[in-house]
Automatic annotation (TrEMBL):
<feature type="transmembrane region" description="Helical">
    <location>
        <begin position="68"/>
        <end position="89"/>
    </location>
</feature>
<keyword id="KW-1133">Transmembrane helix</keyword>
<feature type="transmembrane region" description="Helical">
    <location>
        <begin position="142"/>
        <end position="168"/>
    </location>
</feature>
<feature type="transmembrane region" description="Helical">
    <location>
        <begin position="36"/>
        <end position="56"/>
    </location>
</feature>
<protein>
    <submittedName>
        <fullName>Uncharacterized protein</fullName>
    </submittedName>
</protein>
<keyword id="KW-0472">Membrane</keyword>
<keyword id="KW-0812">Transmembrane</keyword>
<feature type="transmembrane region" description="Helical">
    <location>
        <begin position="101"/>
        <end position="121"/>
    </location>
</feature>
<feature type="transmembrane region" description="Helical">
    <location>
        <begin position="180"/>
        <end position="202"/>
    </location>
</feature>
Length: 206
């Protein structure tokens, strides 16, 4: 009997089982880059633009108008929401039964939530001062993402995702209390940069 024809040892069989289990778990849980990186990039670019417009003392740090900064943020959020929803739906296609239905509904809720948020903010923002209008757009979008992340953690029994939602809610609430400039700065650094780092670390660990 050659070396290739011999029966695998129990240690080799255990190693193969562990490798296949890890690969299956990774396949079912989805790509963390799709769940974290899109939001990180959107927040980093959008809120940095807003921070440069607002400044911390009421004076702009760069010649960026508020509509331009808000446009950067909204474009990033729309793309991030679409990517994240696609990731959730794709992740859900790998399972069957009630879990499949829950995941599909959760994925579509991203689109519905952001559509409704845009309708509400578009209706209310003309009645507010420019800084308060921008703060309403930024605060409401992060509130929606925070709630959906916590809901996603409950749907998929993913505690890290739930706690990230809590983190978003905390940073968002603190920023809204401090004002538009601080909200933009905290969101860019703690949420934008933080989520990019978390997505890379989670991807490398899995």
């Amino acid at each position: 009997m050659t070396e290739d024809e011999r029966a695998p040892s129990p240690e080799e069989m255990l190693r193969v089982i562990e490798e296949q289990s890890a690969a299956t778990a990774k396949w079912l849980s989805g790509d963390p880059l799709l769940l974290y990186i899109p939001w990180g990039v959107a927040w980093l670019l959008g809120f940095t633009a807003l921070f440069l417009h607002y400044g911390l003392d009421g004076r702009p740090y760069a010649p960026i108008s508020q509509p331009q900064a808000v446009g950067v943020l909204l474009a990033g959020l729309i793309v991030a929401g679409a990517v994240a929803a696609r990731g959730f739906v794709g992740m859900n296609r790998r399972v069957r039964g009630d879990s499949n239905a829950r995941g599909a509904m959760f994925g579509y809720s991203w689109f519905a939530g952001f559509l409704l948020m845009n309708i509400i903010c578009s209706r209310m923002s003309p009645h507010l001062p420019p800084q308060e209008s921008g703060l309403m757009w930024g605060g409401s979008s992060l509130m929606l993402v925070a709630v959906l992340y916590m809901a996603g953690g409950a749907v998929f029994l993913a505690w890290p995702m739930f706690f990230f939602g809590v983190w978003i809610a905390g940073v968002n609430g603190l920023g809204v209390l401090l004002g538009a400039g601080w909200h933009a700065l905290l969101s860019a650094v703690l949420l934008g940069g933080g989520f990019i780092a978390v997505g890379i670390v989670v991807r490398l660990r899995t």
